[in-house]
Structures are given as C-alpha cells and as structure tokens.
Design goal:
Length: about 250
C-alpha cells in the first residue's frame, strides 16, 4: 500500500501510529483517495473533521445555494447547448468562489506552518507577524509544534495546526472582518477532540481567525465548553463507527 499525505479533508484517514494515510495506489495502479472500505481493510481511523462532517451545515448550504442561483442567472445557455452541458457549466461556476477561497486559505495555512516549523519563507506576510504576536500575547512564549498528527485508541485521528506544552490552536483564515466573529460549535468540538487525541485532555484550546490584511481574533474556549463539545463528538464518533462498521 502506497501512502500519500494529500487529499481533501473529507477523506483524511490515519494509521494506528498517527501517520496520515490520505491516498493509496488502487488495484488499477492509479492514486485515489482512501475510502471507508480501505479504512476497514487496513485498520485506519477517520479524521476528526470526517466525524464532525456528518453534521448539517445550514449556513454553508445556504451560501452554496446562493452561489448556484447567481451562476444560473449570470450564465446564459448557448444556442443548441444541451441542458446537461449548461447545468454542468453552472455547477462548475458556482463552485469556483469556494474553491478559490479554499486554495487561498490552504496557501495561508502553509505559510504559517512553515513559519512555526522555522522554515525559510522570505519576507514574512503581515498576517503571520500579527498571528504570532496575538498568540504570544495570549499564551506567552512556547515551544510550538506545527502539524502534529495522532491516532487515538477510541478510533479517530487528526492533524493539529499548532500545539504547545499545554495549548492546542486551530487556525481559521477568513475573508473580510474577523473582529466580531463567533466560533461555531463544530470548531469547539474539533479542538476538544484534538486535545484528547494528543493526550492533553486538560489543554487550553483556542481558534485563531485571521485575514490577509493582518486582522486577527483569538477565541479561547472554556473547560466546560470543551468538555460538553467532546461529549457530543463521542456521540458522533459512535454513530460513524456503527454506521460504517468500523
């Protein structure tokens, strides 16, 4: 089995030693994303984001519907164009905004990862300076580790943006204002599962929201919030494992 560390978050799986296993070489010799069937066959564990991804996301679904309607209104159907071809163009156009935002966010996360791994990245973008200043002001000087991965005996895994001696942080890149942002409960669940997965059940946890212009908001979650969130995560985990025979 050839293991690759690349795939969308919805297909993230981990080996029992915590190492990522996102893609494998299939029987046809081509690289493909890991499936639930592969998870059963090779004893892999699903990611925290996969478990939480079972929940409905009304706000995101509404936004996607709005993008689809806008695309349909702005893309006229060509003469003699088959309806299926027009619909395919509309769908592709509606996904482009979200795809661009995801690619931009991935790139920004990558720069932060390289910074905390002390890799050479040239001139620091302003948002990196402000993110680090905000984190240091809140948590003090730490020996930070970026992109640590794990697999927990309960049957879930993950990769953490940043963790210190007793701190777990998840980055969220945004477009526009981040000053009045309110974390989604799913984001608290993610951090609650991460700290347990890392073997740091009492770690302080925070989301750090930032944009390209250098605006940063850090939100630390209370112990009670994290405990409640992990209880909910365990219910989702149990549902996922029974549903998928893991």
């Amino acid at each position: 089995m050839l293991i690759k560390e690349y795939a969308s978050e919805s297909t993230h799986w981990y080996q029992k030693d915590g190492s990522p296993c996102y893609q494998i070489i299939g029987k046809n010799g081509k690289l493909r994303n890991v499936t639930v069937r592969d998870g059963r066959e090779f004893g892999l564990v699903p990611s925290v984001t996969t478990i939480i991804g079972q929940l409905a996301k009304p706000a995101l679904d509404r936004w996607k519907s709005e993008q689809l309607l806008l695309a349909a209104l702005t893309l006229p159907r060509y003469d003699n164009e088959a309806e299926s071809d027009w619909l395919e163009r509309v769908m592709a156009d509606s996904r482009s905004t979200g795809k661009e935002a995801a690619e931009r966010g991935t790139k920004m996360h990558g720069v932060l990862e390289n910074f905390y791994r002390r890799k050479e990245i040239g001139i620091l973008p302003f948002y990196v300076i402000e993110v680090d200043r905000t984190i240091t002001a809140h948590f003090g000087q730490q020996q930070w580790a970026a992109e640590a991965s794990f697999a927990h005996p309960q049957g879930f895994g993950g990769k953490i943006d940043l963790n210190g001696s007793n701190v777990v942080i998840d980055f969220k890149s945004k477009v526009g204002d981040v000053n009045k942002i309110k974390p989604y409960f799913e984001q608290i669940m993610q951090l609650a599962a991460y700290r347990v997965g890392l073997g740091m059940p009492d770690a302080r946890c925070a989301n750090v929201y930032f944009n390209e212009t250098g605006d940063v908001t850090l939100v630390e979650h209370t112990p009670d919030q994290l405990d409640d969130a992990f209880s909910c995560f365990q219910c989702l985990l149990q549902f996922y494992k029974i549903k998928n025979n893991l």
